[in-house]
Amino acid sequence: MMKYPERSHDLTSLCMHYVLLLRSIAFWGHAIILWLLTYLLDQPFPLISVSLVLIVLGLITFASWSWAKARKVVSDKFVFLQLLVDVLTLSSLLYFTGGSSNPFVSLFMLPVTFAAAMLRPLFLWLIAGTAMICYTLLMYFYQPMLLWQHHGQGFTLHVWGMWAAFLLSAGLVAYFVSRIGKTLKQRDRLLASAREQALESEKVIALGALAAGTAHELGTPLATIAILSTDLEKATAEENPVISKKLGLLRSQVSRCKAILSRMAASAGESRADSGKPVSIDRYLENTLEEWLKTRPEVTAKSNFSGSQPVPQIIADRTVTQAILNLLNNAADASSKLVEIEGHWDMKTLSLKIHDKGTGLPASLEHKIGNEPFLSTKPAGKGLGLGLYLARTTLVRLGGDIQLKNRSDKKGNPLGVTAELTLPLEQLKINE
Questions:
Q1: What's the CA gap between 33 and 98, in Å, rounded?
Q2: Mean pLDDT lowest for which of 55-59, 180-184, 191-195, 209-213?
Q3: For residue 10, is pLDDT > 60?
Q4: Which of 261, 259, 235 is nearest to 248 (CA)?
Q5: Cα dist. 157→111, 138, 146 in Å?
Q6: Mean pLDDT of 290-305
Q7: What's the CA gap between 414 and 407, in Å, rounded?
Q8: Neighbours of 70 (CB within 10 A)
């Protein structure tokens, strides 16, 4: 990708950079032409007057560079004033060098072209009108130059001057306007991406509202089930121990559901826990794995965590923990026999790979799973297709991502799916 100046995200600032760059090129071009006409062609030339105009132009350009670099945003008015300076200084140079008979009079088109590409209509027409007036006045008021007279060798030189002016104008317009066009396309892509992220955020907000309402509504029936199961467990303890044991299991599962809802409500009301205790990356991953295994005791897990030393310290975001738990649950649902977890970090990034031993993802869904809500490969009633979507949304919000890749052997037999999570550590407020 092409590299732009520091303030490339501000289109006006970028265009101002191009205007000043073009003026710098014009300044040195005029200086070289001045030297050629004075010392090589031995032609009478208003050296002092042209030199003064170039000195003023150089000082304005230097001051403008300094002013633009010191500000993050450049206003349209500032750009307008710069283009007006270009028109007036060009008019002054042409006045001392033959007026409208100077073949470089076509350079008036450059500031007009830039104004058309950068400014709103009012400023555009002020620049265009000024250029028109200056061109018209130069047809009547100017200091003649024998160099541009249309006869003999002078006419030939005039034609070559017109040719050089055309090449210069065409080349500069093509180059700088194409750069501006690329910047506009880049801005359009960024706007499209921002719109997509806004739509994703709206989906997540809608899901959050739905989850909050559902959690509130589930509170009452869960409390009723807990009370009834407790009473029934006590009533059947002596007469039917088997039924009593099953009722005890039912009560414990109801308690677990209530605990999950309480934790969800607490997490929703928390911020990033900025005042929480820092924890090292390796300890954080081990704690998360232990928390998960308590809820999935039937799973065999194999883990390997490694990275740079000293181990970075983070303040864990609960939403990140939940995203990792969602990925682990998906892997366990695909193959509870064995889930492999590989964690690696450096001072900037955490990478976590979770391998399952399932049958893999259908090719048609491999690049859709996680990008759309309510999209799942699990049987009906086994999943809503939200876990991976919410996990990816959480990671993208923090500057990371999740990639799912099918694995297969040399014969093409499926070996399962690898979920790869990447996350910038600075988003977790790393303390080095």
A1: 14
A2: 209-213
A3: no
A4: 235
A5: 26, 20, 11
A6: 87
A7: 6
A8: 7
CB 182 within 8 A of CB 136: no
Three-class SS state of 424:
strand
pLDDT score of 9 = 40
In 3D space, the residue among 420, 422, 404, 410 whose CA is nearest the CA of residue 361 turns out to be: 404
Q: pLDDT over 90 for what percent of the chain?
A: 6
State the CATH class of domain 279-428.
alpha beta
Q: What is the pLDDT of residues 338-395, one digit of tens each?
A: 899 999 998 889 999 999 888 877 776 666 665 565 555 665 545 555 667 777 777 8
Give the whole-angstrom CA distance, residue 272 versus residue 261. Answer: 19
CA 83 to CA 123: how far, in whole Å? 10
Contact 417, 360 (CB under 8 A): yes
Give how far Cα 6 sits from Cα of 3, 126, 349, Å.
9, 30, 24
Quote the Cα angle for 80-84-88, to 5°: 175
More confident site: 48 or 364: 48
Structure tokens at 357: 């031993």
Query: 96 to each of 23, 29, 50, 52, 306, how far by Cα in Å?
Result: 19, 16, 7, 11, 74
Query: Which H helix or E strand runs over 73?
Result: none
CA distance 251 to 258: 11
For residue 349, give the 3-state DSSP assignment.
strand
Paired with 307 in beta bridges are 345
The dihedrals phi and psi of 301, each to the nearest 5 degrees, come to: -120, 140
* Beta carbons of 29 and 90 less than 8 angstroms apart: no
**Mean of per-residue pLDDT scores for the chain:** 75
Q: Which amino acid is at 140?
A: Y
**Higher confidence at residue 96 or residue 206?**
96
pLDDT average, residue stretch 162-174 = 67
Closest residue by Cα to residue 166 from 91, 90, 108, 92: 108
Strands (E) in 232-315, as ranges, are 279-280, 301-307, 313-314
**DSSP 8-state assignment for residue 425:** G
Would you kindly state where each structural domain of the chain is located, as residue ranges?
11-148, 198-269, 279-428
- Does the pTM of the predicted model rise above 0.70? no
- 283 backbone dihedrals φ, ψ, rounded to 5°: -65, -40
